[in-house]
Amino acid sequence: MYAQLVKSEGAKPREEMTAEEIAFQDRIDRGEKIEPKEWMPDGYRKTLIRQIGQHAHSEIVGQLPEGNWITRAPTLERKAILLAKVQDEAGHGLYLYSAAETLGVSRDELLEKLHSGNMKYSSIFNYPTLNWADIGAVGWLVDGAAIMNQVPLQRTSYGPYSRAMIRICKEESFHQRQGYDIMMKMASGTPEQKAMAQDALNRFWYPALMMFGPSDKDSVHSVQSMAWKIKINTNDELRQKFVDQTVPQAKYLGLSIPDENLAWNEEKGGWDFSEPDWSEFFAVIAGNGPCNEERLGARVKAWEDGAWFRDGLMAHAEKAESRRRASRMAAE
Amino acid sequence: MSSEWPLWEIFIRGQHGLNHRHVGSLHAPDAEMAIRNARDVYTRRNEGVSIWVVPSNSITASSPSEKGPLFEPSNSKVYRHPTFFDIPEEVGHM
User: Which residues lie closer than 8 Å to A227 by C-beta, 6 or more apart?
Assistant: First the structure.
């Protein structure tokens, strides 16, 4: 999902590759996993740091629109479920930061780049969650799109990234189901509740389609990333799969997809649909979405307000360690 | 600027009777907090019955570039595998 516009480095034809680069590409082509300390081209390392970092940032920024509703969930059970879901997202962020760290970048460096705006997170989290049905739509559509993207990434060439993806995918399906469960409740409720569900679908449909990144013809970095198997499917392939999966789910809810061009295409065995407004996508990525400032502001505030706590625990750990050392010496 | 918490490698015993297995890493100020964080990060769905935490910088790893020579002694001794020996069928299961 969550890495939409990752600049890929070091694309070159085979005849210009060094012997090391050829051997590396052959390992990937054979389906071998690349592990942290092994030789890898600099571009592979840089592109991966960018992609995994962006993915990790998306997980933790993704907590914010949902966290918004924890205190206002309609029942205690919904609240507990949402809390568990948001906690999972923190865990997903952590798995991914850990994977990125094996490439020689520190988590603090990555966070610094996020906070200073030098690294991106998914455009989807710059949209507001206005009513409770939005939490349903986010789980159903946003996590649904994420799964579409993440399932193939379990086969990615970089070992730690692949293992993080396997853990994440195991947990992600709970997220999508809890979202769809909210949508079922709302869609079968009062006319007002159903209208809220339809409104949430209307607002999240196109932003969800944007999660897969620009159309293949405008996706300049895909080729190298696919050769390295850090990207498995093209943006348009995944988007098509997502639409094909989601249309019947919306139908079951009795909700309509906000696209008058939506039509079954017998020949391709899939749905034809309207492209999202790509100028909106690029504007949101560039920082001009409805919530960019709020999201980044909340992240920076959490980081800065937590500094005393991080320092306090570290100071306590150091003090305890020196006490232990002193008592060991006294005993000897 | 505060300093980053040290990195810990996390090992979880999934079930009684199995080995602890490396599951990933995390940052924590000390071993005790590393165990608590590991509980929250790596065992949210009954994945474990026991947790080990080890400071990442305490781990010494073999070098990938010496993989060939390091493991050569085992590669060249095929007779260590039972399939190296042909046992006549009439001998029965062995």
Answer: A11, A25, A28
Q: Give me the amino acid identity at A19.
A: A
* Model confidence pLDDT, tens digit, residues B6-48: 999 999 999 999 999 999 999 999 999 999 999 999 999 989 9
ipTM passes above 0.90: no
Q: Which residue is it, tokens 């625990």?
A: A313
The beta-carbon contacts of A258-262 under 8 Å, at least 24 apart in sequence, are: A258/A201, A258/A202, A258/A205, A258/A206, A259/A205
Contact list in A for residue B33 (CB cut-off 8 A) is 313, 317
What's this model's pTM, rounded to 2 decimal places?
Answer: 0.92
Q: How far apart are CA B9 and CA B7, in angstroms?
A: 7
Q: Give me the residue from B5, B26, B44 closest to A310, CB to CB.
A: B5
What are the φ and ψ backbone dihedral angles of A280, each rounded to 5 degrees?
A: -65, -45
Whether residues A91 and B41 touch (CB distance < 8 A) is answered with yes
| CB-based contact B24 A313, cutoff 8 Å | no
